[in-house]
Amino acid sequence: MSGSLQVTQALQHQQCQQRQEQKQQQQLHFESSCYLSSKSSVSKQSFSSVKTTSRRVKTSVKTAKGQEVVKLSPLPKRAKRTYLAMDKDKEVIGYVIPVFRANHEVVRGLMEAQEEDVTEEGINYVAMRNLFVREAKEAMEVRVVKKTRSTHIRESAERMDLARTMDEWTEFRKKMNPDSLTHAPEFIIKPRGQTVWEGKDVKLHCTVAGWPKPRVAWYKNNVLIDAKAHPEKYTVESNYNMHSLEIKNCDFYDTAKYHISALNVKGEASSVATVVVKRFQEGEEAGPLDPKPHGFSAEHGVTFLTTIIDKFEVAFGREGETLSLGCTVIVYPTVKKYQPEVVWSRNGVPLKPSKWVHSHWSGERATLTLVHLNKEDEGMYNLRVNTKSGYDTYSAYVFVRDADVEVEGVPVAPLDVRCHDANKDYVVVTWKQPAVEGSSSILGYYIDRCEVGAHHWTQCNDEPVKYARFPVTGLVESHSYIFRVRAFNKAGVSRPSRVSEAVVAMDPADRARLRAGPSAPWTGMIKFTEEDPTVGVVPGEPSDVVVTEATKSYVVLAWKPPVQRGHEGVMYYIEKCVSGTDTWQRVNTGMPVKSPRFALFDLAEGKSYNFRVRCCNSAGVGESSISTGEITVGDKLDLPSAPGNPVATRNTDTSVVVFWGASKEVKHLVGYYIECCIVGTDEWMPCNNKPVKQTRFVCHGLTTEASYVFKVKAVNAAGYSQSSPVSEPVVVRAAISVPGKPTNVTLVEAVKDYMELAWKEPANNGGADVRGYFVDYRTVKGDVFGKWHEMNLKALTTTSYKAENLKENVIYQFQVRAMNMAGVSVSSLPSADLECKEWTITVPGAPVGLHVLEVRDTSAVVLWEPPAFSGRTPVNGYYLDLKETSAAGAGWKAVHEKVNRMKYMKVTELKAGASYVFRVRAQNLAGVGNPSAALGPILAQTRPGTKEIYVDVDDDGVISMVFECSEMKEGSEFVWSKNYKTMTDTSSLTIVTEKGKSRAIFNSPSLDDLGTYSCMVTNTDGISSSYTLTEEGLKRLLDISYDHKFPVIPFKNQMAMELLEKGRVRFWTQVEKCTSACQVEYVFNDVIVSQGKKYTMNFDQSSGIIEMFMDSLEVTDEGTFTFNLVDGKAKGTTSLVLIGDEFRELQKKSEFERAEWVRKQGPHFVEYLGFTVTQACDVLLKCKIGNVRPETEITWSKDNIEIADDDEDAKKIERKDGDLAFNIGKWVIKQEKPTEKEGKKKTAEDVPPPPRPKISKTDTGLYEVFLRDDRGKDKSSFSLTDAGYQAVMNELFRVIANSSTEIKVTSTEHGIILYSEVTYYNEDLRVGWLHKDGKIAASERVKSGVTGEQLWLKINEPTEKDKGKYTMDIFDGKDGVKRVFDLSGKAWEEAFEEFQRLKAAAIAERNRARVVGGLPDVVAIQEGKSLNLTGNVWGEPAPEVSWVKNEKELVSDTHIKLKFEHGKFASITIDAVTTADSGKYALMVKNKYGTEAGEFTVSVYNPEEEEAKKG
What we know:
Layout: E1 4-7, H1 12-31, H2 42-45, E2 58-62, E3 68-72, E4 84-86, E5 92-95, E6 100-102, E7 105-107, H3 110-133, E8 142-145, H4 149-176, H5 178-181, E9 183-189, E10 194-197, E11 202-211, E12 215-220, E13 223-224, E14 234-239, E15 242-247, E16 256-264, E17 267-278, E18 296-297, E19 302-303, E20 305-309, E21 315-318, E22 323-332, E23 341-346, E24 349-350, E25 357-361, E26 365-370, E27 379-387, E28 390-401, E29 415-420, E30 426-432, E31 444-451, E32 458-459, E33 469-473, E34 480-489, E35 492-493, E36 503-504, H6 508-516, E37 543-550, E38 554-560, E39 571-578, E40 585-586, E41 597-601, E42 608-617, E43 620-624, E44 631-632, E45 647-652, E46 655-659, E47 669-678, E48 685-686, E49 696-699, E50 707-716, E51 719-720, E52 730-731, E53 743-750, E54 755-760, E55 772-781, E56 784-785, E57 789-790, E58 800-803, E59 811-820, E60 823-824, E61 834-835, E62 848-853, E63 860-865, E64 877-884, E65 893-894, E66 904-907, E67 915-924, E68 927-928, E69 935-939, E70 950-953, E71 959-964, E72 974-978, E73 981-982, E74 989-994, ...
Parallel strand pairs: 10-17, 21-28, 103-110
Antiparallel strand pairs: 1-8, 2-3, 4-5, 6-7, 9-11, 11-15, 12-13, 12-16, 14-15, 16-17, 18-19, 20-22, 22-26, 23-24, 23-27, 25-26, 27-28, 29-30, 30-33, 31-32, 31-34, 34-35, 34-36, 37-38, 38-41, 39-40, 39-42, 42-43, 42-44, 45-46, 46-49, 47-48, 47-50, 50-51, 50-52, 53-54, 54-58, 55-56, 55-57, 55-59, ...
Helix pairs in contact: 1-3, 3-4
């Protein structure tokens, strides 16, 4: 039977009413809480736009008709959302909307309104949902009816349509879900960079998507643009997610990077565009060296011209010093009450005044003072002077060197300590590694913290951290802290870095509120809502738990606070779980953390962990977050790769520019450190102490003309990279530039149609040799000057020129320009007016082109060119004159007497370090002409590193001359000359040049090759040398060449023989060099022997060692052993003859060695028994044993009597590993058990004897040591008698004598004592004292002796005769050790003065007045009795006596009688004492040496009164 279920609609009206009621109450809930009744359930039923993780409980209820309906429990009360804007590093950067709370009322801003809009959309969605499913929720009454087929088909179609509607509703629900709608800002169209002309407007556009609608802000170079404050400059518009920034009337200062930041509750996004403003200028484009642009200031009606003079140079400071930089600034014209803007910056960042930086502007001079320099202060400093017409700048680098370390080898201090991501109890500290690690690599860093205002630093980490980043936990909320860092290596800990800026441990929301300043702009609408009570609200689960940092030492977790957290705030518990297990362990069991950050330490490196977080408050602990997944503990950040090859180029006389390739594999690069090293040393020095990020750096402070190499290393938070390869060496000198201008253009000869000119070469060649000159001329007619014309198109190589094709009787002027590889110099000054007419002089003119080569300490070679005008006859010789530069004008001296026909001369016998000038005069038959222009001054000094030409003969017998130069420059060449004439004929010499070495090879040496050969290196400072080949030298070289052509194999060692272990014999030799083709023939008595049982051969061609081994020597082995070598065309032979007594002696040694080998197979003595004396003067008999086992017996004996284990001497035997020792002088105390009662007093016999001597006659005898086990036996003996005993004593005397200290002096009341301390004294030691090199005879006044270990000489009642040199001669077994003391001068005066003082003090002490006895301390006497006391006194002279009562002097009367008899007895008698006589009495004695008081107390009592008191 077919049928269908039909759901009735009895409940449709009820559901509709319920939906209307919910919507109405929901609207009331959001508009005003004042109209809600206490029984309202809207808050429980209202739709929440915020997704929570709380579980809703399913309950079953029954309807009126009995059906069971499933309902969900109302949503739990949720906490208010925080509206904090955070960047990608979880750093709070501000509020989205400020929140203000009152009693059950909340004033919400713009973002809360957006949230309400989302909530309303959710309510509308609920209404639509109910609309779609109302049929399914109507009356639950079920009934069965019969239907026709058509009805059934219609209902089936309706059900399918309903299913399709439900699918559409599901998709709509997903879209309407607020968590799906909301998303972070996203730039659909990003702003594009633009270039505009100055004075034009520019507009930047972009489109931003995001929900809720993001708020945007524009920044210029990271500075917020306030368009409302500058409406004349900026206009900001935002319409329908399209945003724009218009910059009006652009000027040069508008060139910048412009950022736009979009922010909503889901996140933040930003984009950047660059605006370049170009300035239009007519005429030629300004070059890099042209003045900076200036413009007319309409405000003041002038154009300001700025000039910076007295500029600060590249500066070098040291940590802890104070450095000042300054420039003088001239602004023209001067306008009253107008001052330019002076801005200082470092590395492009403007400097603000602080305790480290002070700037001052005096109106003319700008000064920047850096107080207490630190490496953070290193960088490029720029002074910018802004005026109304433009600006001018100047920059120079400041280097800060490290302060001296307190302990050698420790690293220097880290730098740039900063704090990030601060929370209530957490902050991340970062720093940069120093340039210098010290004597070993940095092992880690220690971080210290200190509360602001306190002075106590606390170390944050127990173990040093390797990363330059560390999370510091355990901070106290609302407290301010500063941090510092110290580096650590094997040598110790560095000085601390400069402290960081202070950071406050506080909630990011509070920090953002403080930074935000005023609240959000007024929106014109206030909405009220009822705050739900917070009691009992358990916080939700955190979200987005991620690992932000992971190293070997720690892991840092970060998460987002839960949405549901109540108003009281939440704290967090962190849990971990080892991967592969299900056990979760709480990390911070003691105290939950307040910040959404946590650092975990003490994790096992290489292990994987899962982490999760729980929230808690007073209501309880919430659900755990989603775990992070498996996290492996280890370094996520790798060390940077090594930088590319550095290239160093010349810059100035003290600096070099270094380029290098960037590290290819590096993350989070901090920068690069550059190091330099002088070639030939191993000391690497840092060029910068603050890392630089660019791949170019100018290294300053280098030594001029020194050769340096450079290397670079990269650094990031993980540490240092490997150093780059070392650069090619570079010599520190100024880069090549055009030469200076020539000088002194003069006329040296004139004819009808030509003139001969000469000039001096420029003083500055620009760092490269002058390659030539260009001559210009012009005509002169009165005061009219013609145009300049070039005379030569090809550069001249000399400093003279023949100007041809001139017109007779016409006046000309000439100028000269010099040229080197960098270019052509400026022209020289024009010459004087020169008339072209023929001269009638008969003597020659002045020689030209003077120059010097081969300047040494005592010699130099002067060269010149013949004069342009030779006179009427040819030149037949020259004269060379010289004088010291400091000599007067008439101080010229002729170098030689006879005429020199050559155009060069070597001047000798110069004074090293003196400066000379030279001149040359030419001679012909008519006479001697005028001298040339002076050459010089020339300093007679050999350049450091100068090398001379040397002659070499190679293996093939080829003879050559070699010259080396280590200062080759770009374009430098070797130029060889013979007799100082450039060689053009190469038939006799072949020149071969390789890098810095040139070789001149003689093709066929003969007598025609005799002469002086010189070599000069162009483009250097006159580097040259010469070699004179004489006939004798040529013969010697030819002999060497012959030996090389027909070589003999050289032997480093001739054949030798040595005995080896087991008595084996080794014959060996070594050749200096040989090839792999070298063959050896082994011969004995002219018979070739080969490898076999008797002979073993070996030839190591790499070392050249040839060996032949024999197991033993027999009688038949007497004869001659020979090695014959053949190596190509070279041959060599070496022999060894073993015959006669020499052979037989060798045979005995061989047999002995074999017996020794057999002995050593068992226990044996490596070193036989001998003796030694220690520094403590202990005499030890020592030996060293080998190849012993635990069962090996070791026995000592003396005089053939074995020393048993219970003998006293057995305790003197010591063994340590293989060393045996017998301490002869060891004091052994017998340990005997007490036999008497413990209470009995010990007698003199019970006291142990004093230590025995280190050695005595009783120790003499024959000592033996025996070794034996199943492998064999061995023995060693030492005779401590006669000679043996004397040898030991002599060694003991030597140790004692050398231990003696220098003689010291002390004074006593009897005289002066000279003494010396020794480690130990033996009674047989001979000690002698000498005075003025004469032996001192013993007497009562002068005595010598020994007390303990002190050797002394006592001089009683010293006089002037006792002054002088005293010598103590201690016998040391040979010559004796002498200790000398000069008892004269100050030493005598001080000692004698001290003796007199002590003597006087002793006399005074003996003769001082004193009470020697007779007086009691207390006297008790009955009233009415008489008291009589007598005191014995002493003193010389006799003392004065007085009596005192209660510090008042007594006078003798009838009651008290005082007496002093015989100068010794002082008595006091008191008749019939009364109680008034009680008191303190004293007997006072006094003489010139002192005073003393004998005190006593008198107590008078009355018996009756005493009885009364007792009664």
